[in-house]
Write a structure and sequence with these properties.
The protein has helices at residues 36-47, 52-59, 63-83, 179-189, 202-210, 224-232; strands at 9-10, 18-19, 31-34, 86-89, 93-96, 114-115, 130-135, 153-157, 164-168, 192-196, 214-216. It is of the alpha/beta class. The strands form 3 sheets. A 5-stranded mixed beta sheet has the order 9-8-7-10-11, with helices on both faces. Strand 10 (192-196), helix 5 and strand 11 (214-216) form a beta-alpha-beta unit.
């Protein structure tokens, strides 16, 4: 049996989680991923200047494991700089050290570890070119959901093959705030380059634009199929500003 991974303790997560070359839209670039434990290893070793054994103790892992995580993190950052890739910090296997003192027993509980299997592993790259239409049902002939952030789900289409899948957006349904940002992250994970919907609020618009996702708005009176056909015929203008003010539930 493979040896179980030790819990990687992380003191903080970055406030900024995406970096890209200046002047090039993110949609034209490949992405490389840096997990949170990789970010933490860089912070401890290269910013705080800790020795490997000291940093390993902070993360509650072996010195050898720390050295490997740090090496992979440095490689990801270097590749992003040298090749001009988008560097996205997200996912991984870690536990937040909220109290400032790691409690080893906490790592024995399943909920203590964050495991993001839906996201790309460190060093993986992804092109964002799919089309997502907010939809009230999985059916292509169903109506476009007018809401972006709180849409029931999205029909996601690969324009190269026209293959489509329906992705539920249930995680955002009960959120008091931040639903638009949560949904924008869902789009990113599925390689979406264009969103077709009804209304988009300012925070969601900013989150989508930050990663180069184009936005087509005011399509709430169409079916999903009609919205796709209208986009393919060049009849959908890409928005430059959100069409829903702050404070709404979109």
């Amino acid at each position: 049996m493979p040896r179980p991974k030790k819990c990687r303790m992380v003191d903080t997560v970055p406030g900024v989680r995406l970096f890209k070359p200046q002047g090039i839209p993110a949609r034209q670039l490949e992405e490389i991923y840096l997990p949170f434990e990789g970010y933490e290893s860089l912070r401890l070793a290269d910013l705080e200047g800790l020795r490997h054994d000291e940093a390993a103790e902070r993360m509650k892992i072996s010195r050898q494991t720390f050295g490997r995580i740090l090496s992979e993190a440095r490689k990801a950052v270097t590749e992003a700089i040298v090749k001009g890739l988008v560097l996205r910090i997200e996912g991984g296997e870690y536990r937040m050290n909220d109290s400032g003192v790691a409690h080893p027993a906490a790592c024995n509980f399943p909920e203590a570890s964050v495991r993001d299997s839906d996201r790309k592993r460190q060093g993986d790259k992804k092109e964002m070119h799919k089309i997502a239409v907010s939809s009230e049902s999985p059916d292509l002939d169903g109506p476009v959901d007018p809401r972006f952030g709180r849409a029931a789900g999205f029909v996601i289409v690969d324009p190269d093959t026209m293959a489509n899948e329906y992705v539920e957006n249930s995680a955002s349904q009960g959120m008091a705030q931040g639903a638009g940002i949560q949904t924008a992250e869902l789009m990113t994970r599925h390689g979406v380059g264009v969103v077709l919907t009804g209304y988009v609020g300012p925070k969601a618009f900013q989150a989508l634009s930050a990663v180069g996702i184009k936005i087509g708005q005011n399509l709430e009176d169409l079916s999903v199929r009609q919205a796709l056909e209208k986009y393919k015929n060049g009849q959908v203008s890409m928005a430059e500003t959100p069409n829903r003010g702050g404070g709404g539930r979109r």
